[in-house]
Every structure is written in C-alpha cells, then in structure tokens.
Design a protein that fits this description.
mainly beta; binds zinc ion; 6% helix
Length: 127
C-alpha cells in the first residue's frame, strides 16, 4: 500500500477525474514552448508523481505524443490539459487539482523560453 494523502483533481467539465497519492517528487513552473502552446498560457505548473501513485478515477483522457520522450493527456470532452507522462512518471498540471495550493512549484524550468512579459515574484531556482 502507498501511504499519504489523496490529492484529487480533474478537468473543467468533470468528465476526467484523477487522484495522486502522497507528496510529489518534484514540482515546477515550466516555461517551455510546448507547455505554452498546449496550455495556451505563458507557463504550465506541474507536480510529478510515480505512475503507481497516480490514477484516473473517472473518464479516460485522450493522449497526444508531444515529443519522442513523452505524451500529454487531456480531456476529450472539454480539452483541459491534465498531465504529462514520461519515463520519470506522471506530471499532473497543478491548476487541475481541487486544491492547487497543496502543491506549490519548487523551481522554474526552461527559462530560456520564458515570455518576457511574464514573470513571478519568487526566489525559486531558475533553470
Ligand atoms: Zn473535461
Ligand atoms: Zn514544458
């Protein structure tokens, strides 16, 4: 059995619901172009879980292979971007959590493609 609190989340329309258990392995703001395009916003925030601690409890996401190393999962009804999955595990998009404040980002990644009109007021590491 995996220990730890259950973190529930899902898409805008409610067709896809997921649960992640315990503390995330990592959490970040991603400023890469793929996250910008898929989210439609300047940045995507995610929290990484091992596959064994993430599952869908309602609905089945559509899957888009966005690169050789990973896929993006989204609701086929409303289009909400739910998660990115690669060899490291499942990175759920923290904006989809019922309580997004439970998983604050710990760092910024892909800062070379950060949109210059967008920044956040924090002292987190910037990669
Ligand atoms: Zn939906
Ligand atoms: Zn990204």
């Amino acid at each position: 059995m995996v220990e730890g609190a259950i973190h529930a989340g899902g898409c805008l329309c409610g067709a896809c619901r997921f649960e992640a258990q315990g503390a995330p392995l990592d959490a970040a703001y991603c400023h890469c172009r793929m996250c910008q395009r898929s989210s439609g916003g300047p940045v995507q925030t995610w929290a990484l879980f091992p596959e064994a601690r993430f599952r869908y409890v309602a609905g089945r996401p559509a899957v888009y292979r966005s690169s050789d190393w990973g896929v993006r999962e989204f609701c086929p009804v409303c289009g909400s971007q739910l998660a990115f999955r690669d060899a490291d595990g499942v990175s759920l998009n923290t904006g989809c959590l019922d309580d997004p404040e439970a998983m604050p980002p710990r760092k910024h990644i892909w800062c070379e493609s950060r949109i210059r009109w967008f920044d956040t007021a924090d002292d987190l590491p910037r990669e």
